[in-house]
Amino acid sequence: MKTFAAALLAPLLALALAAPAVAQPVPKTRDGHPDLSGAWSNVSLTKLERPGNLKGPTMTEAEATALAANDPLRRAAEADRKPSDPNAGALAPGGALGHDAVFLDGGETYAKIRGEYRTAWIVDPADGRMPLTELGQRRKREAAAMSNRMDPAGPEDLAPNDRCLIGSRNSGGPGMLNNIYNSNYQFLLTRDALVVIVEMGFGVRIIPIHADRAAAQAAHQPATLARWMGDSTAWWEGPTLVVETVDVRDEQGRFGPIFLSEKGRVTERLTRSSKDEIAYEFSVEDPVHYTRPWRAEMVMTALPGRIYEYACHEGNYALPGILGGARAAEAEATKATPSGGGR
Questions:
Q1: Tell me, what DSSP letter sits at residue 297?
Q2: Hey, how many other C-beta atoms are within 10 angstroms of the C-beta on 338?
Q3: Pairing mode, if any, of strands 204-210 and 231-237?
Q4: What is the mean pLDDT of residues 75-96?
Q5: CB 105: neighbour CB atoms within 10 A?
Q6: For the chain, what is the mean pLDDT?
Q7: How far is the C-alpha of 64 from the C-alpha of 69, rounded, in Å?
Q8: Over the stretch 9-22, which tens digit does the pLDDT of each residue have?
Q9: Exposed, middle or buried by CB within 10 Å (0-12, 13-18, 19+), for 113?
Q10: To the nearest 5 percent, what fractions of the chain are helix, strand and coil?
Q11: CA dist., res. 314 & res. 103, Å (int)
Q12: Which residues 6+ apart lie within 8 Å of 174 measured at CB?
């Protein structure tokens, strides 16, 4: 039997459940701008460019669910979570353990932006691909070869992320891309700057904020000071923080995956669209590597707490190991080669 209080509250509860959800206000800073501070993630199965098996910019929820279930990295991680077989025995000679997929975090779903599941971050051009020039296509091939190189003559032959100089897959930007793990950021917004701490590689961008676009562009440093992740300045356009980056260091610009020359310019736009999301987009201009400007859209989702430190520095373990292995292989090759002899 219902109590009097329960009978009284029942219709009120039904009315509350039927009412549309009220959007929570976006947090503001003391000077009235949307507050971008906090921990954020862009982890997703969606990537910069559209895969060849996907034909349009969007897909249905059923299509996104089916594709996610068959994602190779996700399936590898699920397989790795199973208990190891104690009777499997040792690896065969020359076998390798590889990078355990259980430690990867490439996402569980495709990104949903403005109610649509996206097949790529790139929205312009319509094919979802970077409009590479012939040189840009060559850079892409060179970067792939560098990533797979195991016979370096010296550290300069290795990719910047293998040397712990920057995070892999353009995690730090400009154009902050999701990775196969550690796709997380810590933002600190003050009146004068936006500080972005990148979990992958633990890079830090300190971006000064100026009164307007003209002042921000005038504040760029000399090109000779080209830095990792470039020279970034920012200004507000209403609720959006606009960040312009030029003069990305040559080693980063050549390696990609966003290729940039001394003529390159990346414009990022961050808008706190809700309590739990930042709408993030960026456009890239570089006549050296692209036949036309192109643009990408992404979403960053709030994380509880703070990010972890990713401790990586050049000369730690990987670099001496790779160089030592290359020298050992050279020594073995020398032993196996017959010395020149006379008659």
A1: E
A2: 5
A3: parallel
A4: 77
A5: 19
A6: 89
A7: 9
A8: 444 434 444 444 55
A9: buried
A10: 25, 25, 50
A11: 22
A12: 229, 230, 232, 243, 245, 248, 258, 260, 266, 268, 282
Residue-wise pLDDT for 313-337, tens only, equals 887 788 888 899 999 999 999 988 7
Ordered alpha helix ranges (H), the chain: 4-18, 61-69, 72-80, 134-147, 213-218, 250-255, 318-336
The reply to whether the predicted model has a pTM over 0.85 is yes
Q: Taking the CB of residue 148, how many other CB atoms lie within 10 A of it? A: 8
DSSP secondary structure, 63-113, as one string = HHHHHHHT-HHHHHHHHHTSPP-TTS-SPPTT------GGG----SS--EE
- Amino acid in position 297: E
Phi and psi for 263 in degrees, rounded to 5?
A: -95, 0
| Tokens representing residue 322 in the block | 């790779």
Residue type, 241: L
Most confident of 81-90, 141-150, 189-198, 322-331: 189-198
Return the pLDDT at 172: 95
Structure tokens at 341: 């002899």
pLDDT for the residue numbered 254: 95
